[in-house]
């Protein structure tokens, strides 16, 4: 296998792929694969409730929150959030720190009144917003932020204190990568395909009062309480994805939980950023140092030809998926939980060697 630096779908730990392979033909003595068993069976109930319990344990999620599994990816949440909470003249507040934040905002604009509480667009999204730049509207429905900007490689280190106003975060690309105080948030969501497992579901961590407040005039599949009342089993869920999420959560627990994972992620990111910083400007980081993401490291080379060569040469030595997003260009190394330290070391060595050859 190669070291896979793709931004999502992303690398998964070998141990969980092997476990899934082992159980593929006969899950828990059923004589069927987990893809073939009923989502109403005891076996599947144990998987979905087990995944919820494990995530609660790992993230220290308080008792007054639920974990829901919803289809349509994180992008579906861009729609569900305003539809559920921009009601009764309330205003959806958004902090724009990258492309996905902007996509979330644009969906809300279609639903009802919105307000941009802060934006770093003028800085080409080289950092997240400073807390003192955030200015909410009157009568806010919520404040929406994107905790890690996957494309630009920036990450919030501190979160705004919004008082009674619900704080909502898209944590698609850094959920479960570090310890956070869940009680600061009314709702957290993430597409599964980076730190949680394969694509196919969004994980939504939602406070009880937000479930109660969800807009009752919406069609069934767009209301949060449909998922909460039915343990995310109102209809057939993405059962295989949820099974893989449970394996991934078990793996995180086996690693020692978020204490260990967070330290490892800091170590991994430092290895790659050190390689950028030691290059005398050959590699130029996109993010301001204070906003540097521990999950997506973005940098440029002196010209696009060299960038193309870098990506191609890296792939030849087993470093896959390093091409940056077209909005930033250059290189993006996505180093989610499943990327081993060894992969970051190999990348840093490759960067040094490539520079020595080309500079
Ligand atoms: N939000 C963020 C921060 C992302 O990185 C992504 C995908 O890369 C999305 C949302 C969209 O997720 P999905 O493809 O699950 O809809």
UniProtKB/TrEMBL annotation:
<feature type="binding site">
    <location>
        <position position="100"/>
    </location>
    <ligand>
        <name>pyridoxal 5'-phosphate</name>
    </ligand>
</feature>
<feature type="domain" description="Aminotransferase class V">
    <location>
        <begin position="2"/>
        <end position="344"/>
    </location>
</feature>
<feature type="binding site">
    <location>
        <begin position="74"/>
        <end position="75"/>
    </location>
    <ligand>
        <name>pyridoxal 5'-phosphate</name>
    </ligand>
</feature>
<feature type="binding site">
    <location>
        <begin position="235"/>
        <end position="236"/>
    </location>
    <ligand>
        <name>pyridoxal 5'-phosphate</name>
    </ligand>
</feature>
<protein>
    <recommendedName>
        <fullName>Phosphoserine aminotransferase</fullName>
        <ecNumber>2.6.1.52</ecNumber>
    </recommendedName>
</protein>
<keyword id="KW-0808">Transferase</keyword>
<dbReference type="GO" id="GO:0004648">
    <property type="term" value="F:O-phospho-L-serine:2-oxoglutarate aminotransferase activity"/>
</dbReference>
<dbReference type="InterPro" id="IPR000192">
    <property type="entry name" value="Aminotrans_V_dom"/>
</dbReference>
<dbReference type="GO" id="GO:0005737">
    <property type="term" value="C:cytoplasm"/>
</dbReference>
<feature type="binding site">
    <location>
        <position position="150"/>
    </location>
    <ligand>
        <name>pyridoxal 5'-phosphate</name>
    </ligand>
</feature>
<keyword id="KW-0718">Serine biosynthesis</keyword>
<comment type="similarity">
    <text>Belongs to the class-V pyridoxal-phosphate-dependent aminotransferase family. SerC subfamily.</text>
</comment>
<keyword id="KW-0032">Aminotransferase</keyword>
<feature type="binding site">
    <location>
        <position position="40"/>
    </location>
    <ligand>
        <name>L-glutamate</name>
    </ligand>
</feature>
<keyword id="KW-0963">Cytoplasm</keyword>
<dbReference type="InterPro" id="IPR015422">
    <property type="entry name" value="PyrdxlP-dep_Trfase_small"/>
</dbReference>
<dbReference type="GO" id="GO:0006564">
    <property type="term" value="P:L-serine biosynthetic process"/>
</dbReference>
<dbReference type="GO" id="GO:0030170">
    <property type="term" value="F:pyridoxal phosphate binding"/>
</dbReference>
<dbReference type="Pfam" id="PF00266">
    <property type="entry name" value="Aminotran_5"/>
</dbReference>
<feature type="binding site">
    <location>
        <position position="170"/>
    </location>
    <ligand>
        <name>pyridoxal 5'-phosphate</name>
    </ligand>
</feature>
<feature type="binding site">
    <location>
        <position position="193"/>
    </location>
    <ligand>
        <name>pyridoxal 5'-phosphate</name>
    </ligand>
</feature>
<dbReference type="InterPro" id="IPR015424">
    <property type="entry name" value="PyrdxlP-dep_Trfase"/>
</dbReference>
<feature type="modified residue" description="N6-(pyridoxal phosphate)lysine">
    <location>
        <position position="194"/>
    </location>
</feature>
<keyword id="KW-0028">Amino-acid biosynthesis</keyword>
<comment type="pathway">
    <text>Amino-acid biosynthesis; L-serine biosynthesis; L-serine from 3-phospho-D-glycerate: step 2/3.</text>
</comment>
<dbReference type="InterPro" id="IPR015421">
    <property type="entry name" value="PyrdxlP-dep_Trfase_major"/>
</dbReference>
<dbReference type="InterPro" id="IPR022278">
    <property type="entry name" value="Pser_aminoTfrase"/>
</dbReference>
<comment type="subunit">
    <text>Homodimer.</text>
</comment>
<keyword id="KW-0663">Pyridoxal phosphate</keyword>
<comment type="function">
    <text>Catalyzes the reversible conversion of 3-phosphohydroxypyruvate to phosphoserine and of 3-hydroxy-2-oxo-4-phosphonooxybutanoate to phosphohydroxythreonine.</text>
</comment>
